[in-house]
Amino acid sequence: MATQINPCSSSSTTFSPSSLNQKTFSSAKFFNFSRKSSPSRWVFKIHSRISPKNQFELKSSNGYPLNAISLHDGAAEKPLAKELVSPPEQSESNLSVTVVGASGDLAKKKIFPALFALFYEDCLPQNFTIFGYARTKMTDEELREMISRTLTCRIDKRENCGDKMEKFLERCFYQSGQYNSEEHFAELDLKLKQKEGGKVSNRLFYLSIPPDIFVDVARCASERASSKNGWTRVIVEKPFGRDSESSGELTRSLKKYLAEDQIFRIDHYLGKELVENLSVLRFSNLVFEPLWSRNYIRNVQFIFSEDFGTEGRGGYFDNYGIIRDIMQNHLLQILALFAMETPVTLDAEDVRNEKVKVLRSMRRLQLEDVIVGQYKGHSKGAKTYAGYTDDPTVPNDSLTPTFAAAALFIDNARWDGVPFLMKAGKALNTRRAEIRVQFRHVPGNLYKRNFGMDLDKATNELVLRVQPDEAIYLKINNKIPGLGMRFDRSDLNLLYSTRYPKEIPDAYERLLLDAIEGERRLFIRSDELDAAWAIFTPLLKELEAKKISPELYPYGSRGPVGAHYLAAKYDVRWGDLAGDD
Ligand SMILES: NC(=O)C1=CN([C@@H]2O[C@H](COP(=O)(O)OP(=O)(O)OC[C@H]3O[C@@H](n4cnc5c(N)ncnc54)[C@H](OP(=O)(O)O)[C@@H]3O)[C@@H](O)[C@H]2O)C=CC1
Ligand SMILES: O=C1O[C@H](COP(=O)(O)O)[C@@H](O)[C@H](O)[C@H]1O
């Protein structure tokens, strides 16, 4: 039976040494890591053994307490002399999280619930304050009322959830203001100071707002509401620009007010459980890593589909399209993690260095390696589904793709010639996100004749189902028990809901906790972003310049047939459409 770990409450922090890397474990045997000051600052005390009371805490996604101070941290550049000499007790510091755009969809749907879940799991420091900031006029009470509608006691419906919720809401406050008003951010600063009560203040701003106001907010927050004695970090939501130029411009503008290491560019797919597990699967199981190359892998597929359209977000979406919305970030980030070389350590910079190398080894995407689609209205029985251009916020003649499939290549020794296929679409027949690895044929297969003519169907396929119903399964050929020699295609199946019955935390919980802890591994560094845009920008420009018409597909279908032709060009069949998926 798997041990359930509450990563934050010390009472339940029991785990096996195998969950730590070697380097950490050997030090962990001798040190007691305790959290004594601001979240990213740790104090190490020498202990000869780990007593139950002194079990070290497992908090950030790195799986072990972070090093004392990140040398790259904005706050670390200007540390308080006092802090370095004698770190203050935790009770002397305060964390404040300001959700900018608090009245919006993402804040209500994801950010406040994630903060509550962290509070519930004792992952937030003892002294914390949450502020909502937006233009909408609201009282603290109204904010609490709004938030409370989306908070759930999702964690096993444990006792005291109602009490916890009340305690959480008591720490939530609201400040109304314009996004470009330094004066309004100064008012926020005053309120933050009141709540901090003279303690060391660590401030996290979450920019859950449209991208055209990111820079205004970064300016106002950094000039008028940044911490004077602790750290200040800013989580920036996507999209990070529309192409290489606008992304570069956004980075340059943000850097006028923030250091790179204060900027946490979030890609919530990196916080998903199965995506986190990708590296564990690959680097800690001998059976996978030796196969992880062109020698054994025929192709890799990254598939994203949603069974709903752009409902409510058509205005935003039409300016971006599915390639920018999903492929250039979520799917490409997973690809980079999948294909990178072994990082030197699990430290953020080592992992991100390897990801950048992969991205920089990738060929720029060519128009002939892409097909685009757009969903049209469709009636099924009595029900009618509106097409993309039926959305009043979308122009009738919009050519924006709501579906795309692409073949990408990594020109390095490990992956030379292996097609990495991506497929992403809205308003399809199903909601799913998965990684499919199709292996090569078995050379000189003794049982070749048992498979009929289609040997492709008999190759192994490893599937990581990111959502829904998280699972890892490997398709193998197996003898059907009994006399004779009949074969079956079976799955070795690790279904998470059976193996790990506890509910899986939402991606935003992991990422918020990491930002609080100063763990940057799951956030996008600016050079990663540049490399990612370099792959897609020429293609995006060409699609727009040539006004390429998307292939129409009915709402709720499997998408345009062009995706099959594209895959066939590289001798690939989409694994999700194989009929035995
Ligand atoms: N919603 C989602 O599922 C996802 C969203 N994102 C990204 O997260 C960010 C926030 O998303 P979401 O909550 O959906 O966005 P919203 O459109 O809901 O905007 C958030 C808030 O920003 C303010 N706002 C909206 N439009 C403008 C404008 N034109 N000028 C100034 N302020 C405006 C509004 O607050 P007020 O009027 O009160 O000031 C609004 O409540 C965006 O960058 C989005 O791309 C990323 C992934 C998923
Ligand atoms: O970033 C985005 O992601 C969502 C899908 O996220 P998921 O976690 O629900 O799979 C997508 O709907 C949205 O268009 C996009 O901006």
From TrEMBL:
HAMAP family recorded: G6PD (MF_00966)
Cellular component GO terms, alphabetical: chloroplast stroma
Domain Glucose-6-phosphate dehydrogenase C-terminal: 280-574
SUPFAM superfamilies: Glyceraldehyde-3-phosphate dehydrogenase-like, C-terminal domain, NAD(P)-binding Rossmann-fold domains
Residues of the Glucose-6-phosphate dehydrogenase NAD-binding domain: 99-277
Compositional bias of kind Low complexity: 9-19
BP GO annotations: glucose metabolic process; pentose-phosphate shunt, oxidative branch
Keywords: Carbohydrate metabolism, Glucose metabolism, NADP, Oxidoreductase
Source superkingdom: Eukaryota
Region (Disordered): 1-20
Enzyme class: oxidoreductase
One Pfam family from the record: G6PD_N
Function according to Swiss-Prot or TrEMBL: Catalyzes the rate-limiting step of the oxidative pentose-phosphate pathway, which represents a route for the dissimilation of carbohydrates besides glycolysis. The main function of this enzyme is to provide reducing power (NADPH) and pentose phosphates for fatty acid and nucleic acid synthesis which are involved in membrane synthesis and cell division.
EC number assigned by the record: 1.1.1.49
Similarity comment text for this entry: Belongs to the glucose-6-phosphate dehydrogenase family.
The protein, known as: Glucose-6-phosphate 1-dehydrogenase
Swiss-Prot/TrEMBL catalytic activity: D-glucose 6-phosphate + NADP(+) = 6-phospho-D-glucono-1,5-lactone + NADPH + H(+)
UniProt pathway: Carbohydrate degradation; pentose phosphate pathway; D-ribulose 5-phosphate from D-glucose 6-phosphate (oxidative stage): step 1/3
Keyword NADP: yes
Molecular function GO labels: glucose-6-phosphate dehydrogenase activity; NADP binding
Keyword Metal-binding assigned: no
